[in-house]
Amino acid sequence: MKTNPFLVKGLRPLAKALSLAVLSGFGLLGALPLSADETCASPYMKKITGQEDFVYVWTLGVEGLGDGQDKLVTVDVNPKSKQFGKVIQSLSVGGRNEAHHSDFTDDRAFLWAGGLDTSKIFVFDVKTDPAKPKLVRTIEDFVAKSGGVVGPHTIYALPGRMIITGLSNNKDHGGRTALVEYTNEGEYIGTHWMPTDADLRGAIKTGQFADGYNYDVRALPRKNLLVTSSFTGWNNYMMDFGKLLTDADAMKHFGNTVVTWDLHTKAPKKVFDVPGAPLEIRCAWGESHNYCFTTTALTSQIWLIHEDDKGEWQAQSVANIGDPAKVPLPVDISISSDDQRLWVNTFSDGNTRLFDISNPQKPVQIYEKHIGAQVNMVSSSWDGKRLYYSSSLLANWDKKGADNEQYLKLFAWDGKELKQTFAIDFTAAKLGRPHQMRFGAHALYSNVAGKGHGAALAQNP
Amino acid sequence: MALHWPKTPRQGHKGGSPFLAGLLILAALSTSASPPEANRTPSEPLAPGYRPLDYPVADPGSFTLSDLGPAADALLLESTGSKISLHALMRDKVTVISFIYASCGEVNGCPLATSVLHRTLAALKAYPETLAKVRLLTISFDPSHDTPKVMALYARPFTKEKPDWHFLTAPSAKSVKDLLAAYQQSITSEVNAQGKATGSISHVLKVVLVDDQLRIRNIYSPSVLHPDLLVADIRTLILANSAQPGNPSVIPPNPSPPKLRPGDDKSQYERSDYRTQSAALTQRTGAAQDLIGLGRQASLGLPKDPYEEESPLTQAKVTLGRKLFYDRRLSLNGTFSCAMCHIPEQGFTSQEQSTAIGIEGRTVRRNAPTLLNTGRLRRFFHDGREDRLENQVWGPFLAPNEMGNPAVGQVIEKIKKASDYQDLFEIAFGRGPSMDTIGEALAQYERTLIAGNSPFDQWYFGGQKTALSEDAQKGFVLFTGKARCSQCHSIDKSAALLTDQAFHNTGIGYRDSMGGEEKRTRVQLAPGVWTELDQTTIASVSEKKPADLGRYEITQNPEDRWKYRTPGLRNVALTAPYMHNGSLKTLEEVIQFYARGGIPNPGLDPSLQPISLSLFEVHSLAAFLKSLTSTGVTPLVEDAWAAPIGDPISVNQPDSR
């Protein structure tokens, strides 16, 4: 049977995309307009460039609401679908694990979702039927195998394996912790402890702090760089927020460090002072943009982690977010693919803020919008035109009473204004507290060549 | 070098132009690092494998590669057509495996892998001994087109010098399917809109490094696939093989972390010049001690063990109780053991929280008391509601806001199902786990947490005149005299628990219930960085504060409102923060509190009257309190650190290894 000719001049869309599919670690050079939710995901992973079909929302159970357990909620987000804006599946996993973050394996076949309390990791098959994720494995040995690391937070794809940040430990439920690696099959590989004063593990302590805390991890493969930030331990992240704020002893146990690592050897290289709990890290895309941003939750600053002209990595504060004295509490952030814009959400006032980061040394806020009484996560579509927001930060930190709005909201961004497209009330729907959002698309797993939205597969930094 | 190929359809397996296309690309690649332009759109960057690395690679041997699991076996066909197993090819070699299909024309795809492998071999020529131990395998995942003859043709440009590089294919599409699954290579044959195969195959490119024990040691995707990295990893593996035993490349870490304060000590955190002094969790290792023997040594100044006759301490019971104490599986969701609130190096209490939190972060109203010397008390909990140690343990086990177990039977079931508890109860008690054997085992361990024989004891009961410093002696005089502390924190002739084990109202509980809210709260955000938050802001994220009426909740007698048990003062320097709600942070603060006469309220204990104390007197009292720290705590912590911590492995088999 004749097959289509094998073209060598001018690649066919899938072939072209295939070649992009095997790229990692590169900035996009304008061939495809790119920005992504997927700007936060691993550089080793396939991406969705067109219209996403689904959003998988990792949701915390609320005692007394519905079945009271954590669940993966699938929402149909393709505007052409009859079910657009509707919950099409809710998959309960048992227990309240402090569901928090989730992410895909490098082949995007599985979604790993972690619980900060029980340290369980739930593995969902999202390839067989992206509309109906299935729970295929529950990893329960994270604490035992890792040597006592508690609270899998960021789950990040490396080639053939997952690197996972811990938040705490099983000795004192404090903030000292490690990075942990697991194979894609769910087998433990190794533990890389955060540098502490007693054992810096070869890292240079550049300032006053080497607290040994962890939070998020991001990679810049072309610079052989891994970067981690620092939050707090189980004792604090599980505590009622009001109780925590009024406990002077507990308030001393927040992270004040960012660590850079050798991605290849997983050796820590430098410990930087970044006071006030630096949280999410986002690295720039551009081929020569050797820098990453993080924001500090307690001190409300944007920090730049960057390579200087001598090839050394440095960290410095570059902007305030809102009025730091009021503790606006910056939480999730999202960088655009062209490295020009940074969305920053502030939990306390429920606002989303857009920063112009065209000069990374001088971010300037250029837009702000109120999203809800509280806001945490923001996920951007591939082309930057769709922004999804979710409300929950931590089960015991979320606001109480009427301010405890629990929602998933989609906004359209036209470059000037955010306009709401739909909103789902997760309390009215008896689901719980929505947290991490991840995108799914049929086209990711389709073997049909060429056109159609979402048909292109690309890997991006 | 521009290359053009005619647009001919793919016709079959043998010698057709499609794979010739691949060969030509590879031929070009084999001679130079820059690939042809024709197969790449201008905007598509080259994989780093084609360019010099933008960073220095770590020295071989200066790092270790993780073990990523076993390398699976498979039956393959050499380019000669003969059958061979993958394991046979891997044995005694460091192997690099790449999966390709011969007609792949994507410059950043299979040709990248082949180019990198070719240049890796070239680089290894500088290390002939290493090169001799290395084997490269290029395996096709498209056996229907890539026959052995095709693979032989494919190999030709790279095998002129007869390197140890095999080009293989699989006997069948089915066998390759299993092979690919084993190596996480997901591939999809592309089809057009009509469902016909286009000839292209979509896959996530990965190259795998396997050691000579058939273990996968690294996996590379295009963003890290580079000859320099491969060479460094290969040389690291081979160096590790030839490393002399007893010549560790890693310097052993420093000695042990502090045993009388948290490893995450935040002293001076208020100051902007605060510096961390964090201990490493990997150094938190101990050694099992003779707890029963230690207890005898550390008893000077303590009353007799009230349980001695009815429950003589045995090694088996103590060890079993210790295992239970550190077992996080014994909570509803596998996150909490007794030791999560009674942390050994924090005085067997928590020095980092005013009041505890239990499972799911549920608020506990009160500060966790120390378990040091708890075996000599007759009343347990701040409201004294239990009077026997082996019954007390069931409080935390079943409290919904502590370990959250829904029933006694559930705890027993968990223990029965855990293989690491097998026979331990039978050996210790002659019968299995039950409410009373679990209670008794835990009580026995707690009864070994004996911490008397402090400098004060050696001076007061042991007659050693120089055992207590002058400051502390002055403090003792105040303690038993003008400051009237010993009225409640009693010292007897032959023993001192420094508690009357009775209940008193100091006003702290009264203030919590009846006092107004702070309008503004000073909150620390970072070392030396503070802000003030108003009541509304804090209230917006606060649960309703639970009421706490103290001893009244047990007796229902209004006279007992806001009365709490007098805690013992032994080892008090190790048990901050203080009072039943952890509201006073330092010993000096406590002394000043009592010097002011507590907090006035209708039920205030009559012994609380304002006392005039000079700064020096406060200092002396503090010195006395610090002299109550036993020398026997350190070995208890040493032992505690050696105790196994129980953690879940799976929900059906609650084993912990």
Strand content of chain A: 35-45%
Structural class, from helix and strand content of chain B?
alpha+beta
On the 0-100 scale, what is the average pLDDT of chain B?
Answer: 90
From the alpha-carbon coordinates, what is the Rg of chain B to the nearest angstrom? 36 Å
**Major beta-sheet overview of chain A:** 5 strands, mixed
Alpha plus pi helix count of chain B: 22
Question: Helix content range of the residues of chain B, please?
Answer: 25-40%
Overview of the molecule:
The complex is a heterodimer of chains A (461) and B (657). With 461 residues, chain A is mainly β. Chain A is 5% helix and 39% strand. Chain A has 4 helices and 33 strands. In chain A, the strands form 9 sheets. In chain A, strands 15-19-18-17-16 form a 5-stranded mixed beta sheet, with no helix packed on it. The N terminus and C terminus of chain A are likely disordered. By secondary structure, chain B is of the alpha+beta class. A 5-stranded mixed beta sheet of chain B has the order 5-4-3-8-9. In chain B, helix 3 packs across helix 7 and helix 9 crosses helix 14. The relative contact order of chain B is 0.10. Classes of the chains: A mainly beta (461), B alpha+beta (657). At the A-B interface, helix 1, strand 13, strand 14, helix 3 and helix 4 of A face strand 6, strand 7, strand 9, strand 11 and strand 12 of B.
